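Hey, resending since the last one bounced:
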Amino acid sequence: MNKTININLGGFFFHIDETAYQILKNYLESIARSLHDDPQGKNEIIADIEARISELLSEKINDPRQVINENDINDIINIMGQPEDYEDAGEDYSTNQTNYKQHFTNKKLYRDGDDKFLGGVAAGIGHYFAIDSTWIRLLFILLAAFGGFGIPAYIILWILLPEAKTTAEKLQMEGEAVNIDNIEKKIRTEFESVSEKFKNADYSKAKSSFQYFIDSIGKLLLLIFKASGKVIGVLLMFISAAVLLSLLVGGFSLGSFEIIGIGDNFVHLPPFFYNSVIPRGLLTAVVFISIGFPFFILFILGLRLLSKSVKQLSKTTSLTLLGIWLVSILTLGFAGIEYSSAHSFDGSKISENTFEHNVQDTLQIKMVNNNELYYKHYFRRSSTQEIVYENDVKKLYCTNVKVNVVQSETDKATINIRKESQDKDRNQATENATQIEYNYTITDNILKLDGYFLSNVDNIYKDESISVTIAIPVGYQIYFTGSTNSFLYDIDNTQRIYDNDMVNQHFLMTNIGLECTDCDESVYRN
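The structure tokens again:
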């Protein structure tokens, strides 16, 4: 029959039999003796070891009245290890693989109070999943920026997760075995860190009140500067990540549209993409690199402002990235020069035809559109170009058509069509203009002019246009229908009426020019 003893171990009460108590007492004394030559942190080490033993004993007890026996203590000692197993840990720790490795304690999720930006949640999760805490913080930032979920998730984890305060909890957070070897090593490391700070402190002389005030201001400014650096780092990361993500999405989307052949319908590419000798895929990559690399560097800079553990890019990597970026800039410069040269010369194609018209009848001028090609609710003149399909052939659609009326130098009525385009030489510009498709018809007394023209899709951004000049002899009367509004372009008339006011009015060609026969005098400018 053994006596039962009540003991207080690590703040908890246990019932333990006399034999088990004696074994535990001898074990703790042997640990204390092993620390005799190194008194630094001795009491804290013993306290942490007792707390860990208390935790292990609590796991074995199913009933508060249960008595700890000899076998229970021996099991605990096997987990914690014997003092002689770690006496030389200071020199041979990296090679001393003892029994405790077999009793590795599973990681536990805590908040890391020693490496925290706010509550230590990201650092704790980083320890648990063996990931640098910077990437966890970045994940929370992205979740907050793009979904709004990051902030409430962080707050909830901050509330639910306990902070690792004791040495045992810190070891469990890092996934290390909680035994006397690791506890001693952890506490020694912390004491050395604290001692180093005190060693570097200057206590050679007492500071005056003024000097203390100055130092306090300096510390405050340093704290503000550090906090500002963190904020700047977050902003740099957020802006850079948003730009890079936009470039990636835009590049993949453009590539997908190009593959299925509808890219131009949804996106107007930069001007230098069209009719360039450089393939569009390569130009897309060049644009991505030229814009993306500077923001990638800013992203790395933001990471380094948030965490010192993020290393600077190596010299080889930096020079390689700089070289790729410079090549991309030069390629863009070449594409820009090529685009500029493609607009160096103007070319035109002029055609003139006579048409029969009874001088006694009024010639009506009307602008028409092909709604099957491109429907426009407000049919007006514009230099905007659109992609359309005519008989499954991709073409450019534009309403940049100007109409003018002048006095004929003969007794014949004529219609002059001038097509204009641009390119790197005059011959090519003239060829572009020749290929422009434009039509008109005259039936009875109605001259129907197309209010649009079609051209080669590669001629986008080449400032193409159509100028229609109608020359009528003296004595001809014309009427501008409402559809000509915005298409009439600087038509001379004797009353100096503006083009917009000439719509829905009758005009007579006289020896001195067009004269309105039914206009209100309020529109006259002479």
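The two ends are 132 Å apart (CA to CA).

Sorry for the duplicate.
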